[in-house]
Design a protein that fits this description.
The chain is an alpha+beta fold and 260 residues long. Helix content is 25%, strand content 34%. The chain has a single domain, classed as GHMP Kinase, N-terminal domain (Ribosomal Protein S5, domain 2), CATH 3.30.230.70. The protein has five helices and twelve strands.
Length: 260
């Protein structure tokens, strides 16, 4: 393991990686939707051997006081031991909290969901959107896989029927009303290793990177959110370069998201 970083550095300096990819190539990506029968929306994402399940569930609740006429969005990620030997049962780890927050920010900051359309009765009742992210196998880059799964699931989400007289959600009765998704954010996560930049790190690469940068972009090329990880620095020039790469790669990722 001590020789892994110099080995990867040497490959990246030549524009190569140990799995044969170029620095800014993703592994093979597969996205399926509608795979969890009891969810209002769901998706399964494979990036190489990394696999993530995402489910969306809707319920009715009280809005936040500072947004009394807006629906509520909540993202939760659970890192279960079945996905990786490094994950443990117990309270949410810092990695699971970061995973949920980065994905949440990518969706929230660009207003991907028109939450104002999810108001049932101002100050009293709104639709609450719960996004649950479950990694099944972690071989690196859970961030991008989870973000792809989240937006793919949201795009296929249907509102359940709400009985206003009984004031309860009829979860088994779905309407034909889709969630008001108005933008399609995708996340692209880059690594920096000994001065070399690349995208979509495998688990082996993630263990060696000096710095990480996740950038959420939307259809018009706007970067809507950004999160840095790792203790190493990134220069202003590198951030600009990676933002441009994020826009370019985001267009390709967006085409992989099923339309239905």
């Amino acid at each position: 393991m001590a020789m892994l970083k110099p080995y990867m550095t040497e490959l990246l300096a030549k524009g190569k990686r140990e799995d044969g990819r170029k620095p800014f190539d993703y592994r093979d990506i597969k996205i399926e939707t509608g795979i969890i029968a009891r969810a209002n929306g769901s998706a399964r994402v494979l990036i190489g051997k990394t696999e993530v399940l995402v489910g969306v569930k809707l319920d009715v609740g009280v809005p936040f006081p500072d947004s009394p006429e807006s629906g509520v969005l909540m993202v939760n990620a659970e890192l279960l031991p079945l996905a990786s030997p490094s994950f443990e049962f117990g309270p949410p780890s810092k990695d699971s909290i970061e995973l949920s927050r980065v994905i949440d920010r990518g969706i929230r900051e660009c207003h991907a969901i028109d939450l104002d359309k999810l108001c049932i009765k101002p100050k009293e009742k709104v639709w609450m959107v719960f996004i649950d992210i479950y990694p099944i196998n972690d071989d690196g880059n859970l961030l991008d896989a989870g973000a792809l799964g989240a937006i793919a699931a949201l795009k296929t989400t249907l509102l359940p029927k709400y009985d206003e007289d009984e004031e309860k959600v009829l979860h088994k009765e779905l309407t034909k009303t889709k969630l008001p998704v108005q933008k399609i954010p995708v996340l692209t996560t880059f690594g920096k290793l000994s001065g070399n930049l690349f995208v979509d790190a495998t688990m082996r690469e993630e263990k060696e990177v000096d710095a990480r940068l996740s950038i959420a972009t939307i259809e018009d090329g706007t970067a809507s959110a950004m999160q840095k990880g790792g203790s190493g620095p990134l220069t202003a020039e590198e951030v600009i370069e990676l933002t441009e790469k994020a826009v370019e790669l985001g267009k390709k990722l967006r085409k992989l998201i099923p339309s239905k």
